[in-house]
């Protein structure tokens, strides 16, 4: 049974699930089959549908995007004493799995063109470490808010020094990499391994869940084993390595299969919202947007603006609080990981200048749910103009 009732929103949230209406029947189908867990045919089908859609070699559905990153680092053999280069302008889940493995994240500053990992900083460090005979164990590159990082130079230097690349495409499912304006691959299927998140706020959802993708089958098959407590293929419980409980349930995979066909619409809808913000706010001097770089057709998972402090007398935090007063939820950009107390205490290395810091200080993420309506967009933009011009 699915509810046909449409919630009326006095409050406008940042990013919420957008149902197709087919989820209830899909989950009921799984229930009727009595295949609830562990795993099951819906999981197999969901993996195959995502895999073929993005052109990956193999796919593994997981309990979360974080679990998928952890499995990725584990099958790459990342361990004690290793360094993993990670974007600094991102969610903690991009870096924590390196620490779960006893390795040390090294944070790489952002490139102001894309807001993603600066490929020059990355290349210099990979070369420097390579020449010193200590290449990083992996690079975790994030596609911020759905915009692709500049993958060509990143993949080039990493392949030259045989450093595996893991794409954190948690919010970039549906983004396309472009070469000379033409689609040349899907976010998440460009590096050696890639991950998606199906958390409630992401492009599509399974309530919680994730997917690990690989160009090659073998590491994904290893991850498949590790994700179910590393059982050896014998009748009794036999273990030769330490595993995890990271597999997606059959019920959630059914839910995900009902969401998947809507992905192209969700990308279109979020991109249209982004354009809507640009149209309505472009007249305001001092408001900037995350640029769209020529190599990315982005999901525009979240629309993020910047407020130029020389032209706009209000801080992003003041704007956030003023929006909240009228029921509009916004959020600062990710606080750069190298500024997070927990990582500072560990004395982790950081490469580059203050691009990510300045974006954090000036930026604000605006409501971007794919279900956002034009009237709501009007209301948000009206309020933003009121706050930044009345100050
Ligand atoms: C959401 C997100 C994750 C983690 O995904 P979960 O499914 O919540 O574990 C990792 N990285 C980024 C950039 C994210 O936005």
Description of the structure:
The chain is an alpha/beta fold and 391 residues long. The chain folds into two domains: 23-261, Aspartate Aminotransferase, domain 2; 263-390, Alpha-Beta Complex (Aspartate Aminotransferase, domain 1). It has helices spanning 23-32, 41-54, 65-75, 96-100, 119-131, 151-160, 217-226, 250-259, 263-281, 316-325, 341-344, 355-362, 374-390, and strands at 58-62, 83-87, 104-108, 138-142, 165-168, 176-179, 182-186, 193-197, 210-214, 287-289, 296-297, 303-307, 350-351, 363-366. Helix 1 packs antiparallel against helix 8 (250-259) and helix 2 (41-54) packs parallel to helix 8 (250-259). Pyridoxal-5'-phosphate (PLP) binds next to helix 3. The site of pyridoxal-5'-phosphate has 14 residues, from helix 3.
CATH top level label of the largest domain: Alpha Beta
- How many strands, which pairing sense, and closed or not: the largest β-sheet? 8 strands, mixed
Identify low-pLDDT runs. none
Fold-level CATH name of the largest domain = Aspartate Aminotransferase, domain 2
Order of H and E elements = HHEHEHEHEHEEEEEHHHEEEHHEHEH
The helical percent reads: 25-40%
Give the averaged pLDDT, no decimals.
96
Second-tier CATH architecture of the largest domain: 3-Layer(aba) Sandwich
Q: How many strand segments?
A: 14
What Rg do the Cα atoms give? 21 Å
Q: Which small-molecule ligands are present, each listed once?
A: pyridoxal-5'-phosphate
The backbone outline, from C-alpha atoms, is globular
- Please identify which CATH superfamily of the largest domain we are dealing with: Type I PLP-dependent aspartate aminotransferase-like (Major domain)
Q: Domains counted in the coordinates: how many?
A: 2
Major sheet strand order: 1-9-8-5-4-2-3-13
How much beta, percentage-wise? 15-25%
Number of contiguous helices: 13
Given the helix and strand composition, which structural class is it? Answer: alpha/beta
Distance between the termini: 49 Å
């Amino acid at each position: 049974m699915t509810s046909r009732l449409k919630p009326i929103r006095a409050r406008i949230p940042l990013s919420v699930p957008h149902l197709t209406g087919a989820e209830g029947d899909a989950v009921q189908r799984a229930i009727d089959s009595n295949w609830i867990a562990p795993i099951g045919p819906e999981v197999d089908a969901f993996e195959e549908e995502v895999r073929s859609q993005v052109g990956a070699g193999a796919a593994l559905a997981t309990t979360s995007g974080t679990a998928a990153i952890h499995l990725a680092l584990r099958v790459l053999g990342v361990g004690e004493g290793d360094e993993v280069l990670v974007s600094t302008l991102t969610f903690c889940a991009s870096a924590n799995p390196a620490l779960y493995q006893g390795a040390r994240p090294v944070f790489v500053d952002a490139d102001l063109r894309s807001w993603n990992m600066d490929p020059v900083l990355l290349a210099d460090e990979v070369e420097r470490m390579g020449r010193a005979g200590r290449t990083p164990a992996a690079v975790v590159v994030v596609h911020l808010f759905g915009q692709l990082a500049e993958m060509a130079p990143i993949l080039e230097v990493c392949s030259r020094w045989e450093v595996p690349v893991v794409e954190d495409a948690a919010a970039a499912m549906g983004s396309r990499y472009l070469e000379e304006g033409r689609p040349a691959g899907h976010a998440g299927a460009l590096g050696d391994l890639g991950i998606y998140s199906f958390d409630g706020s992401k492009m599509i959802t399974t309530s919680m869940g994730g997917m690990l993708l690989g160009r090659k089958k073998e590491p994904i098959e290893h991850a498949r084993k590790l994700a179910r407590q590393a059982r050896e293929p014998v009748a009794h419980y036999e273990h030769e390595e330490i595993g995890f409980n990271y597999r997606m349930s059959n019920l959630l995979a059914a839910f995900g299969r009902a969401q998947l066909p809507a992905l192209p619409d969700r990308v279109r809808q979020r991109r249209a919202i982004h354009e809507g913000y640009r149209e309505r706010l472009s007249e305001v001097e001092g408001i900037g947007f995350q640029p769209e770089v020529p190599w990315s057709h982005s999901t525009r998972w979240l629309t993020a603006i910047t407020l130029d402090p020389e032209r706009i007398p209000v801080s992003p935090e003041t704007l956030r609080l003023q929006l909240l007063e009228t029921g509009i939820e916004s959020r600062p950009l990710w606080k750069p990981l190298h500024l997070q107390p927990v990582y500072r205490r560990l004395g982790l290395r950081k490469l580059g200048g203050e691009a990510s810091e300045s974006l954090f200080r000036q930026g604000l993420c605006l409501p971007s749910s794919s279900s956002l309506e034009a009237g709501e967009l009007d209301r948000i933009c009206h309020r933003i103009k009121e706050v930044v011009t009345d100050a």
